[in-house]
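Worked example (supplementary).
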Amino acid sequence: MTQDLPRFRLHPHVYRLDLFEQQNGTCSCCAQLRDWKYRGPFYAVQKPDYLCPWCIADGSAARRYEGQFNDELSIEGWEPDPSASANTFNAELIAEVCDRTPGYLAWQQAQWLVHCGQPCQFIAYVGAAEVEGLRSELAGDLQQLDDTYVQALSADGNPTGYLFRCLQCGTHRLHTDGT
Ligand SMILES: [Zn+2]
Ligand SMILES: [Zn+2]
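After joint prediction of all chains, the assembly is encoded as:
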């Protein structure tokens, strides 16, 4: 049954994370009986009661509720000024992240990391052990963090690590936050 679920290029393990729960219900957007309910972030004025993964994947939920699953400002390096030279992403990539990719649950404003000029895939919530195993790849992201903080990271605690992976070159990246 899982094989019928829509897949998200930028969020490949989404059904194994805490972003959907298996709960029967009628999707507020497509009115179909569904069994996976989205429980991640959705920035919209009017919050739907039940969103199914299909309505996220095809963009219909974002259109209908004029909402976003990820805020543009959360995309690393994105500038609100359309003429900003820092904006190397095309509108299609921005729309994929914001309108058709589930978010993830963070303590603070989430960040969607970028590598090779493209938004990365969200891989997992991670703790100190996983970060240790990827230390050399994550060196750039770890640089400004102090060691005690990194040691305290946990996948389901506070602070939390958020692991991303570049679709182009496979390099991992790390975002962290806490209360
Ligand atoms: Zn739906
Ligand atoms: Zn890369």
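Two points are worth noting when inspecting this output. The first strand starts at residue 20 and ends at 26. The mean pLDDT is 93.
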